[in-house]
Inverse folding.
């Protein structure tokens, strides 16, 4: 019986427990359904392997991922929310530690990456699921989106920092009176406290209508921009120029959309910019410019806070400027006081030591002041002694009365350089040059006269002496002029006579040249006959001749040849001067011509006991008249041999800068310095030689040679020393420059 009752009681208890469990399960189910259906609470459940079993609507709304997208990834679905591997492993490690430790009530906060790319902050708590035996079979998590809460907390924290910064900056700037130090502190404080990428300050320069850069939160940029004189035209350039004109803040949370934005090379990453005016009352003194490398970096709170800070900064800038101006004024006043003292000392020193006189007198003739120089000029021992003098009664010579001085200075207000005569104490006259002015009160009444006086007594005496000298000079000039007129008449007669003589000389010269030409032409034909007959006689065509006859014939032939050469020279000179000389140009090698001349004169050199040596260098091609140049160089070599008693005659030729340079050098008698300037003149002969030999020829060879060389666009020059020899240098253009030219002379 008791056993039956006992089984009955146990059976009843089992039923009661089962009913309680069912009720608990029902309530849990109801609570779970409530949680799952809550649109603001993210609920997800996963099995022991980590595969998602439940992913409610709130989870889809917050993360952006659907239940199907999450379940399709299996156990790796956390990668969607935590793409960073290290961060994800850290989150899972913390969650596993909490679950194993049994601290299911602990709340975790993490950042997730949503499907649309946003980053959100979530607060969540995870709990494990176990079977009747206590074995884990899965887990679930309840998640809240606390992004807005965190943003609000961050905004409050940021606002607290900003307000704290405003307070600190306001206290600090009120104690900084150096403007550069003030601006540098402010930009650094704002960047450090607010976290902007860059902060700078510009101040307005109304005189130039620009807003000028003054300080940057990046020292390296500040140095560069100051060197570049960074500035913006007010009202025309950039956001900074616009704010400096309008006095209103300008916000650009995307600078690419702001028409006033001007990019800066040193700040290529700027995404947002906020420019705040610095105003004292309604007067704009500058702008505060803050920049960020993030889009949408600024909001109304930033404008409010920075404007409040800008107002404090503007007042501090004004105070710093006023302080600087006050310091400058104090310094200026100090300098002025020092300058006044120094000026007074200099004036006193100058007054006492000035060489000219300085005075101050009243209109009625009293002497208020006179420096030592004036006291000495007037012959007094002291100023007190001079002050007893009444200028209305004494002191001025009769021809220079004081009344005229007073009338003029009262009318004109001043006198400059007035010359007059004063009386000295001893009665002698002092000539002075005076400059003075009338000093008047505010009503125009004359208080006194003050002026300077220069002693010109010595000058006046010199002027008088000079005037007497001038009078004497004028008398002498009149007499001399009469003499010069007579001399001039004589000179005019001489000029007329000289002109007549020159005309006669030109006529005689023309007749002489004409006579020479006629004689040359008339002599040419008989000379040819004489030479021909002499050659026939010498050759024995008219019978044999004796030795004496042969000697006579040789003399006839030599003199005939000499006379023929002379006739040819005259005729050649006539053609050159008449302009009828025609050059028969051709291309040839100048060194060949010179080699022929060397060979031609070797026998002559040997007969005279001389050596003739040539150094003709490289090839020199010229475009010239070979016959005329042969005459030139033959003349030079012949002269060198003729005027040399011993030694060597050299012929050298070389190329130099497009020219052929030929030199004939001898070691003979040389030419004196007085003969050198005339050596190329017609009919000029060197009269005296060291050997005492009488010059041969008539002095035409060198004159003709120079004219021929000049006709070839060349030059001929000579250097010589008596007893050392002479060097004649001829330059001729090479054919490279003359190939295309066809000039006849």
């Amino acid at each position: 019986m008791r056993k039956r009752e006992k089984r009955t009681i146990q059976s009843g208890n089992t039923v009661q427990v089962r009913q309680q469990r069912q009720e608990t399960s029902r309530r849990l189910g109801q609570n779970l359904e409530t949680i799952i259906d809550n649109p603001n609470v993210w609920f997800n459940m996963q099995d022991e392997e980590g595969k998602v079993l439940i992913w409610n609507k709130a989870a889809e709304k917050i993360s952006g991922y659907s239940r199907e997208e999450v379940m399709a990834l299996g156990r790796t679905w956390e990668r969607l929310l935590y793409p960073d591997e290290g961060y994800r492993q850290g989150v899972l490690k913390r969650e596993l530690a909490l679950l194993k430790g049994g601290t299911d009530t602990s709340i975790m906060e993490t950042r997730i990456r949503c499907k649309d790319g946003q980053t959100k902050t979530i607060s969540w708590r995870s709990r494990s699921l176990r079977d009747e035996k206590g074995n884990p079979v899965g887990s679930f998590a309840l998640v809240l989106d606390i992004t807005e809460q965190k943003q609000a907390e961050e905004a409050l924290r940021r606002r607290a920092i900003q307000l704290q910064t405003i307070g600190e900056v306001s206290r600090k700037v009120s104690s900084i009176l150096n403007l550069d130090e003030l601006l540098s502190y402010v930009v650094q404080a704002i960047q450090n406290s607010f976290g902007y990428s860059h902060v700078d300050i510009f101040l307005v320069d109304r005189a130039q209508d620009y807003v000028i850069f003054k300080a940057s939160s990046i020292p390296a940029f500040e140095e560069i921009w100051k060197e570049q004189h960074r500035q913006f035209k007010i009202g025309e350039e950039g956001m900074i120029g616009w704010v400096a004109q309008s006095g209103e803040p300008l916000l650009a949370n995307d600078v690419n959309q702001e028409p006033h934005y001007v990019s800066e090379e040193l700040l290529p990453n700027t995404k947002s910019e906020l420019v705040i005016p610095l105003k004292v009352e309604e007067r704009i003194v500058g702008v505060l410019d803050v920049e960020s490398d993030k889009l949408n970096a600024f909001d109304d709170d930033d404008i409010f806070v920075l404007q409040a800070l800008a107002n404090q900064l503007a007042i501090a800038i004004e105070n710093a400027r006023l302080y600087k101006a006050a310091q400058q004024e104090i310094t200026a006043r100090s300098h002025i006081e020092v300058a006044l003292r120094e000026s007074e000392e200099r004036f006193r020193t100058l007054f006492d030591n000035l060489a000219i006189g300085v005075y101050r007198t009243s209109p009625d003739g009293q002497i208020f002041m006179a420096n030592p120089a004036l006291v000495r000029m007037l012959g007094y021992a002291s100023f007190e002694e001079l002050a007893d003098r009444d200028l209305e009664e004494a002191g001025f010579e009769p021809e220079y009365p004081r009344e005229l001085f007073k009338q003029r200075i009262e009318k004109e207000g001043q006198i400059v350089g007035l010359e007059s005569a004063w009386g000295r104490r001893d009665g002698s006259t002092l000539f002075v040059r005076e400059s003075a002015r009338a000093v008047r009160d505010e009503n125009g009444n004359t208080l006194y006269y003050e002026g300077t006086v220069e002693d010109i007594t010595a000058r006046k005496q010199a002027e008088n002496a000079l005037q007497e000298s001038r009078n004497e000079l004028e008398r002498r000039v009149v007499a001399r002029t009469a003499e010069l007129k007579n001399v001039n008449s004589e000179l005019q007669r001489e000029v007329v006579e000289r002109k007549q003589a020159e005309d006669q000389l030109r006529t005689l010269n023309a007749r002489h040249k004409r006579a020479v030409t006629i004689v040359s032409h008339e002599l040419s034909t008989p000379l040819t006959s004489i030479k021909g007959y002499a050659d026939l006689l010498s050759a024995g065509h008219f019978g044999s001749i004796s030795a004496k006859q042969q000697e006579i014939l040789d003399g006839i032939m030599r003199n005939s040849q000499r006379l023929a050469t002379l006739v040819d020279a005259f005729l050649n000179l006539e053609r050159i001067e008449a302009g009828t000389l025609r050059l028969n140009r051709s291309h040839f090698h100048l060194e060949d011509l010179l080699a022929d001349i060397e060979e031609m004169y070797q026998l002559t050199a040997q007969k005279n006991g001389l050596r003739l040596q040539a150094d003709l260098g490289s090839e020199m091609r010229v475009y010239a008249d070979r016959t005329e140049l042969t005459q030139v160089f033959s003349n030079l070599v012949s002269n060198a041999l003729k005027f040399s008693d011993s030694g060597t005659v050299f012929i050298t030729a070389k190329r130099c800068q497009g020219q052929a340079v030929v030199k004939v050098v001898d070691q003979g008698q040389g030419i004196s310095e007085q003969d050198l300037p005339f050596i190329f003149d017609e009919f000029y002969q060197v009269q005296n030689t060291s050997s005492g030999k009488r010059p041969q020829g008539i002095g035409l060879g060198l004159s003709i040679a120079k004219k021929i060389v000049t006709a070839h666009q060349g030059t001929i020059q000579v250097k010589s020393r008596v007893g050392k020899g002479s060097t004649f240098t001829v330059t001729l253009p090479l054919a490279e420059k003359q190939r295309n030219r066809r000039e006849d002379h």
In short: Residues 738-745 have pLDDT under 50 and may be disordered. Residues 457-539 form the longest helix (83 residues).
